[in-house]
């Protein structure tokens, strides 16, 4: 079994581009690293980087995604900052998982079996990697690799609903007093916006319904006018996707075509579980002050929570405000603290009574 330099190992992962759907090369790199660290390691049929160690009764899944959004950021070290696409979202957290697990003492590995999953296609609605392993693993505890800051423990993420709306109608002269196809879509989107703003009155951000217009197109008119818009909703626990769809259909005139996809249920876990207690212990042992967080985005937590009804949180070093930005970077001291804190948390978890 070898040792790996943490910064160089992460830097190597960042230097391999892995936009959603093209993760194979970085998965092979990460699997090779896990094998060098003494783990059973392989790349599975969904191109996930997989690792396993320990032989204990307590099953722990550490799952973080290894795909990134498009957009290259030159990988470089600048002082204590490591720049690169995926540094915080989310190769950094997954490499943290690998290195924390690799440093576990033998007594912990006699109590735990740790399953590492570097998941594919999290940044697109498919969540291919997480959906592939959902029926294959039966964890007692789950940690999702997402940037929370090394002192942060994320308890929940909003759900999501993607909506595509289309209007096609006979063309007419612009002097005719009638809304054209594009104007009908604008009117509908404005009604959706008014509905969400009414729901959000007096609510904290995590409990609000967020909307975002992602695309709007007007096709050249010949005999027909055709317009399309695409928007997404971020849904709090009080509004699951099916309930949101009911409202959206009620506001839509029958002339509009609506298509719904990317449905992810909202999730919020409890504060007090053996897993959250272990993470609080680990963060304190590493010199930090643990804080709980709720995120307004979505993650593979939303995909897996319906399949794995066990204690689940998200954890990982990094500043999530840098996600998807051209300035994405991780602070090296925070990255190293995250490894230390997670390792201590897993050691503490190993000492707990195995769940029924």
UniProtKB/TrEMBL annotation:
Chief site of localization: cytoplasm
Enzyme Commission number(s): 3.5.1.130
Chain residues that bind Zn(2+) 2: 89, 123, 324
Active-site residues from the entry: 67, 122 (proton acceptor)
GO process terms (BP): lysine biosynthetic process via aminoadipic acid
InterPro entries attached to this UniProt entry: LysK, Peptidase_M20, Peptidase_M20A
Coiled-coil region(s): none
CC cofactor: Zn(2+); Co(2+)
Identification of the protein by name: [LysW]-lysine hydrolase
Gene source species: Marinithermus hydrothermalis (strain DSM 14884 / JCM 11576 / T1)
